[in-house]
Amino acid sequence: MSADPIRTVAVLGAGIMGHGIAQVTVMSGYTVHLYDIKQAYLDRGINAMDESLGRLLAKGKISNDQYLQIKSDLLKPFLNLEAAVQGADLVIEAIPEVMELKRNMFTEVDNICPPHTILATNTSTIRPSQIATATQRPDRFLGMHYFTPVVFMPLIEIIRADQTSEETMGIALDFALKTERVPLRIEKDTPGFIANRVLQFPKSVLLGCILDQDIVKPEALDDQWRTLTGSALGPFEIMDFAGLDTYINASNYLSRELHPDYTPCRVIQEKVNAGQLGRKSGRGIYDYSDGKPKIGLSETETAITAHDVMAVMINEATKIIEEGLCTAEDVDKTAIYGMRDKEGPMTYAKRLKPAELAQRLDELADMCDKEIFRPTEYIRMGAYL
After folding, report:
1. Among candidate residues 164, 186, 208, the one where a domain is terminated
2. C-alpha closest to that of 30 among 54, 15, 8
3. Structural contact between residues 191 and 123, judged by C-beta atoms closer than 8 angstroms
4. % of the chain exceeding 70 in pLDDT
5. What's this model's pTM, rounded to 2 decimal places?
6. Backbone phi, then psi, for 158, in 5-degree steps?
7. Which end of the chain, N or C, is surrounded by fewer C-beta atoms within 10 Å?
């Protein structure tokens, strides 16, 4: 199916994800209606986009004509929801990761948009099917999960909800390609999909254990991770970039839907309660008051290492492979295009002996008191090799 029917895209939410989605969409020549509830939020998102576009212009990545067209014609800010969505062919929601907020938003949007409009949620963890039931068009509803920072991370998970039509999936996939994304088609609607189920939240559980027990300094583990994977950001930096409040909301959801071990850790909950939400608030796991924090190897030997972070990711990957959600190749594609890692966890796993990997996972499960770290039979049998 072609995305040709899509000309105007409404993006709901001008935060880190929303303005990033708006930017990559408008750079591909679409008219974008960027909506938020406060002028200050809109201004912040538009200013961030302008800075990013200015850097791309200076580097010759976009032309001056393209820059001027975006600024004068294609990008349109809105504070009125009805005005933002009533003429949209595609609506992409990027508001906080709270089920009822999303459902309420889509109930309202569904009543405004014309029948042909496709509705998409950028949720990182919530099953789109649970949001789609708030609308009268579940066949034209799906998940479109972008990765942060959106301008530099090309992967997008296209998630079929329970009643999403094949036509809707086809249009979304074609739209992703036209906006220079790398789409990963996901047919089974499950919490966290591939990226967060494997690459983020088991890792976040381990990071929470590290913080609560003060096992390793965050900067040491981040430095190890950069060296191991080639990633530009360490796992603690990624949590700060995405927002610690987002981590809390998603973890609470996963603790209900998947396992109580995903319950947010004490240290992060305390930071969020204190308004320390990460990069967007100037302070989170790191302090951003002087700009980007310095990440250096402060410890040469640590009780938990970047290799352990990889181990819990591999373990979770084998669970969803066993469930038939995806292949090992899909997992690696997600890491490479969604995280900019030099290789995926399943490729890394081929260098590990099953008995040693299983033993280390059991040790981590005991150290952190987390049953989700127990090795799968898939690992114990060496089926990943």
Report:
1. 186
2. 8
3. no
4. 98
5. 0.86
6. -105, 110
7. C
